[in-house]
Specification:
This protein is mainly alpha-helical and 312 residues long. Helices cover 75% and strands 1% of the residues.
């Protein structure tokens, strides 16, 4: 039977789990309410949106690409869903609009990257502004409110004591884990990011899988935007602003390499939970959101430095 050595304990997913446990213990000591069941469940609800979008980002990063438009896509999808629901009162139609906008955003990003041969950083940096701009023009910069109260079930409802968004997040995590770690599709994503030339020689359909990765990212962003709109019972074009930073922090902290080929669903889950615990813990202690941005930025730099040293 293999044993986990001390050095191994500080690396990979075991190291992330250790960090998560230590953070929980520290915040539990500093705040009397942090370790309460209601707050812990609240953390899972808060993290669920970031985690869902991170699943899509992980697929893109595994292929050696990046998507900076996830926050803007979530905002546009939320606006589209809210406008449709308010105008028609039809939830199926609103969900259809959500699906169409999500897939459209991912398809355009993928097509410009794969067939237009423009670096994904440039494509998604531009689409981040374009998509956000479309949402602002659509709403004239005003919030879309007055949605049916029953719509709040997805983002703010509970089944028993478990938030619905947490249950949905867990379901998507299980699906992502199966696809990325138990099927050939996950092998292809990693192969494309690890060695593009070898993937070509192995007859892996590179363009197809890169397109799929961007479409998944768009779809996951759309689900995140749908949950945000449901939770707030309103939609704003400025919603989910900066979400891409939380998502990137979760994926990178989870051990994914921006050069592609490396990353796991479990690592991404732990990375998102660490970010969520830090955000919640600092809020519990009354620490300014300005400092939270400094902490998250520092986490990204440290995670990249650790990854570089590990790869040497």
């Amino acid at each position: 039977m293999k044993t986990i050595k001390g050095k191994q304990l500080l690396q990979g997913e075991w190291g992330l789990l250790l960090i998560l446990v230590v953070l929980c213990l520290v915040f539990s000591f500093l705040s009397a309410t942090f370790s309460s069941l209601s707050n812990l469940l609240n953390i899972t609800r808060q993290v669920s949106i970031v985690l869902i979008i991170s699943i899509g980002m992980l697929c893109v990063v595994l292929c050696g690409e990046i998507d900076l438009s996830v926050g803007s896509t979530a905002a546009l999808v939320g606006v589209g869903c809210a406008v449709t629901l308010k105008a028609t009162g039809s939830l199926p139609l609103a969900l259809l609009v959500t699906l169409v906008l999500s897939l459209a955003a991912g398809t355009v990003n993928g097509a410009l990257t794969v067939f237009g041969k423009i670096p994904s950083f440039i494509v998604t940096l531009a689409s981040m502004w374009i998509i956000r701009g479309i949402a602002l023009v659509w709403t004239s910069g005003r919030a879309v409110s007055g949605l049916p109260k029953g719509f709040a079930f997805l983002g703010a409802g509970h089944i028993g004591i478990i938030p619905v968004s947490t249950i949905l997040c867990l379901l998507l995590i299980l699906i992502a884990f199966f696809i990325l770690h138990q099927t050939r599709h996950g092998v292809y994503f990693r192969a494309i990011g690890s060695n593009l030339e070898a993937s070509k020689l192995s007859a892996i359909p590179i363009k197809k899988y890169k397109m799929i990765a961007f479409i998944i990212a768009g779809l996951m962003s759309g689900i995140g935007g749908l949950i945000t709109t449901s939770k707030l019972l309103s939609a704003q074009a400025i919603a989910n602003e900066g979400m891409e930073m939380d998502v990137l922090a979760a994926v990178i902290l989870g051990g994914a390499s921006l050069s592609g080929g490396i990353g796991t669903v479990i690592g991404t889950v732990l990375g998102a939970l660490i970010i969520g615990v830090i955000n919640n813990g600092m809020n519990q202690l009354g620490i300014s959101a300005f400092y939270q941005q400094i902490v998250k930025g520092s986490i990204i730099i440290i995670a990249v430095l650790v990854r570089r040293n590990k790869d040497k």
